[in-house]
Amino acid sequence: TRFIELAGEVNSNMPDWVVAKVAAALNTRKKAINGSRVLVLGIAYKKNVDDMRESPSVFLMEKLRDLGAEVSYSDPHVPVFPKMREHHFELSSVALTTESIAGYDCVLLATDHDKFDYELIKAQAKLIVDSRGKYLQPADHIVKA
Fold this sequence. Notes:
5-stranded parallel beta sheet, 34% helix, alpha/beta, Rossmann fold
C-alpha cells in the first residue's frame, strides 16, 4: 500500500535528516562538517545487540565521511567494524573515556545501548546530537535529531 511505501521513504531519508542536524549543530559552533571529528555511538541495528544488517548508523557514517568528517564509532557490541559487501570502514570501537569523548567535535547518538555511560558522555562531549531521545533535560550542547 502507499502508506507502507511512505513509511519506507521516511525511514530511508532519516540518515540525511540526522546528518543535516549534525551539520547545522556544528555550524552554529562555527565548525564545518568537513574536517570535524565525529564519534557515532552505537552502530548495531538496534539497542543491546550486535546485528549490523540494515543498520542506519552505517549510512550515517558513510554520509558523514562523504562530507569530509573524520568518523569514528563506539559500540560495546561491535568491537571491530565487520567486513560488509556494501560498506567499508577499517575501524575498531573507541573506548569511551573522559579524554576520548572530549577529543571529538560532535558525538552522535545513533543506537542507545544500555552499556553506554550517558552521564560521562554528557559531561565530556562538546556537542551531542541525540537521535534516540535519550537526553531529556535540555542543555546548550545537546541537539535533538
